[in-house]
Amino acid sequence: MAEKSIAKTASREEELKKVSRAMLMRQLLPAVGLVAVFIVFNILTKGRMVSKFSLVMSQVYVTMIASTGVFFIMTMGGLDFSQGSILGMASIVVCMVSKVSIPLSILAGIGTGAAIGAMNGFFYVNRKIKSFIVTICTMFLFRGIIKYMTSNSPVMGDIKLTMLGMNETLKMICTLVVIVLGLLAFRFTKFGIHLKAIGAGEKAAKYAGIRTDRMKFLVYVLAGAITGFAAFINAIKVGSVTASGGNQLETQILIALVLGGMPISGGAKSSFLNVIIGSLLYTVLISGLNMMGLTTQAMQLVQGVVFLIFVTVFADRQSLQVIK
Amino acid sequence: MSEVRLQIQHLSKTFGITKAVQDVSFTINKGEIHALIGENGSGKSTLTNMLTGIYSIDSGHFILDGKEIHPKNQVAANDEGVSIIVQELGTLSGLTVAENIFLGHEDRFVHMGIKNTNAMNREAQKLLDDYGFGRIKAGDMVDDYNFEDRKLVEIVKATYFKPKIVVVDETTTALSQEGREELYKVMKRIRGEGGTIIFISHDLEEVLRLSDTITILRDGVYIDTVAASQVSEEDLKRLMVGREVTGNYYRADYGEAVSKEVVLSVKDVTVPGQIEHVSFDLHKGEILGFGGLSESGMHEVGKACFGASFDRTGSVTLADGTPINSIPAAISHSIAYTSKDRDNESVVMNQSIGDNICLPSLDALRSVGCFLSGKKMKNFANKYAKEMSVKMVNTDQFVSDLSGGNKQKVVLARWIGKDSDILVLDSPTRGIDIKVKQDIYQLMDQMRKEGKSIIMISEELMELIGMCDRILIMKDGKISGELERNQDLDENSLIEKMV
Question: Where are the strands (E) in B219-312, listed by range?
């Protein structure tokens, strides 16, 4: 009898080890993928990727900053498709206000993003509409406004704004600040644990004392504000906003996060590394394909295939039904 | 010796790490009502669900009349001659009575691709009349009938085709006295015709009165099969629990005076559609019980005390007059709550045991500023998980892996860690095996002695009688009676006030 129970515990531990090995694989895959993709593209482009590394990096900033906010939203089980329109809208505001004052334009961008985020949050939390429906609506709404505002000519930023765009260090520091703050808040304060709890079981989280509705609303505002800040980086990079400003940012973020190993339904398995590795992997992948001379159409096709594969690998099938 | 109908051989089923049924073997004869009894989680329903094709079989065999069966679904089970009447509502809304009765067997009425609705209704009506349920009309929508009548429709659906075995799974608890009598009649008729009934019920008195043979399961293991005529209710309880059910299973004291100090005062609380004008006081060191039928509103009382009721009027206040109007207010004033719906409202399923235990106490687990201390969290989680002896590998394990009893322990560990003074426990032992149950009772007794106050809401009358200083009975959203702790209290005195 005793032997039997020992054998049972042993097989149980064996089982758990297998599970944790699978978990480890899943955690490591994105990092390994990043290195592998980087090496493969370097070989294919004969080292051009290393030589133009700063150019590759300059593509990563906006995606990485905006991914941070969406990461918070996705951790608590929501989605946000309005990010591209938020970026476009906030970029227009940044460009317009930059003629008055640069610091003021940063604040205005953040404010614009936060306001659109608040609108998302209001309809999602107070009017109880699924987040992806709400954000698809706001995506179209603000895309419309962007097109209207840029119908005659692109909205130009002040010349001082464009000058800042030369400064790569500034962009990198801005990105680092957002990433470090996000990492600290998510890993080391109750903010992260509360977000994960909402994603893993909202009702139970509420009964454990988390003000879930307020939290959900504020996270949408926060994600909007963060993307509003990314709009400043975007504006100094491009100098002007056209009708397609920020177009498809939401899909880029989604693909980046999923490439980074983010479970699409969020919850306790979300890790902040998903943001960092994911946006790097996405950028390397896109730049690599670009350098190899792929057409835009072909790139979309490749993106779609890669996205599908990663979603299949990382989907947490137990909790898929909780996407809100 | 009567003929064998069903042989169950070495049957096993596991859910994750929970062994629901372990190597169970016994036989069931023709022409008998065979009762299956056991505590919650003993594996009765798992076993019959495998027989009726609702769950797949992990290992083992069902031999029906000499032929092995392994039905893939309920319709396939029907074709093998096995049907089931369940506890919950088993009819489908939006279909007629006749369509429900012949669900999955519509082919009988289909000719050249066209369903002959008239023939179907005629046939169904004939069956209903035969059963004596003529007031139910076959062509009506099933939604037009109340719960009780829909249950009768299910009885017809499960038995009209003269199945070899009918499983009656805790159906009687959902029925009124008249409904039960109808069901008993059908059961006896099937037995008379040589059919077999597998009867699952928690009501031992009913089991003894109706059945011929009784099989007892405990923690998924087969214990014994006995003839109903040769055992008493006490024998059955002993077999179910595994030892004499006396002594300190519940708390043993009687006649201890409860402090007069009020810790929580509920005044004139109304939640529309749930409870009306409920008022009571909870005293220091008291275990206050709430009993009643599931829909009596008693579960909502628990939510109201925790600030979790939507649209509540009236007041819930602490001794010093502090109002409790929201969950965070309740928690910060040392009120704890465990829900009846454990998986959705108590534990965060897809999160680690550690995070689950630490959730309400995070503010106390900081190192500097608003930063949390990982070490403090780990120690805190380990300490209280150990104190509650949660069966786990470590605190990083996800709660979704745990059995019901262990999930409940995690919730209790969370609130003990928070050092709550007022505990609202809604169905704390629901679906939990007997050992953990006893642990929880002992914990409650200990907390009471430490001066903590407990509101215990339960559908199990025996545990209310065994544990509470005072029991309030709810009926139709109102308090319908109050009983003091007393050695002579029995279930009937509670039931009288419930219905």
Answer: 221-227, 262-271, 275-283, 287-291
